[in-house]
Amino acid sequence: MSTNSGLRTGDEVVQLYVRDEVSSVPRPILKLRGFERVTLKPVKTHGEVQS
Length: 51
Hints:
Layout: E1 2-4, E2 10-18, E3 31-40, E4 44-46
């Protein structure tokens, strides 16, 4: 989730990282699975929280 708490419009790159805790082969601790550039107007929130 990303929030613009300022008074001006701003850009943010939101990134999603995942990890595999039960892999049988060595894997990176975190892997970038996706990203998105979003433009946020003043005092606005974008996105959702995933667990």
